What does this fold into?
Amino acid sequence: MLAPTICRSCASMSITEVHAEMNLHFPGRSLDQPSIFAFPKLVVCLDCGLTESIMSEAELHELREFAPRAVKMSL
It folds into this structure.
C-alpha cells in the first residue's frame, strides 16, 4: 500500500513516512494482560500532525483474532 501524498486533514504535501513500534492494549484489560506488538509504517503530516498507520497483513490478522475477545471481555 502506498502512502498518501496529500494530507487528508489540511491538504498539505508535507508528508513523511516513518517506522514505529507499538504495543496495542485493548479497553477493559490491564496493562499487564497480553497485548499485540506491531511495527507499522506511520504516515505523518509535518504541518498539522495528522498521523495514519499502515499495518502489515500479519499484524492485521493477529489484531482481528485478538480484538473480538478483548471487546467481549470489556463489556
Observations:
- The helical segments are 57-74.
- The beta strands are 15-19, 22-24, 36-38, 41-45, 51-54.
- The mean pLDDT is 83.
